[in-house]
Amino acid sequence: MKKPLISPKCPAAIGPYSHGYRCDNLVITSGQLGIADGKLGATIQEQTHAALTNLKNTLEEGGSKLENVIKTTVFLADIADFAEVNKIYAEYFTSNYPARTCLQVAKIPMGALIEIEAIAYVD
């Protein structure tokens, strides 16, 4: 089974892509930006919370959940935000942490400060 995921709880995609894909017992998400209520958050804290909420909503659209995430990739506009992002990330992933890659990139769409993508399994 291969099914594109478009969550009504997430902001509309800013390009020709889906929020994620369900493929058999896996959910693979696109990068989620820190957009809430149609607006990009002003701070790394606001954007991190919003990106993780959008990630959660995409996973749920595919029948999964944050507890089933096995890998994330976190893209930061400034690696100096790493410690602050970790504090917030730990509120969403509280045990059995997923594997993770975190890196600074030159630019993120819309001038965002953070983008997060994930791979999760479905029970």
> Rg, please?
13 Å
Order of helices and strands: EEEEEEHEHEE
* Count of helical regions: 2
CATH class: Alpha Beta
Quaternary organisation of the protein chains: single chain
Structure report:
By secondary structure, the chain is of the alpha+beta class. Helices cover 24% and strands 33% of the residues. The strands form 2 sheets. Strands 1, 2, 3, 4, 7, 8 and 9 form a 7-stranded mixed beta sheet that branches. α1 packs parallel to α2. It is globular and about 40 Å long.
Blueprint of the fold:
Layout: E1 2-5, E2 20-23, E3 26-29, E4 32-33, E5 35-36, E6 39-40, H1 44-61, E7 69-76, H2 82-92, E8 99-104, E9 114-121
Helix pairs in contact: 1-2
Characterize this entry briefly.
Helices cover about 25% and strands about 35% of the residues. With about 120 residues, the chain is of the alpha+beta class. It is globular and about 40 Å long.
What keyword list fits this structure?
60s Ribosomal Protein L30, Chain: A, 2 helices, two-stranded antiparallel sheet, 24% helix, 123 residues, seven-stranded mixed beta sheet, globular, alpha+beta, single chain
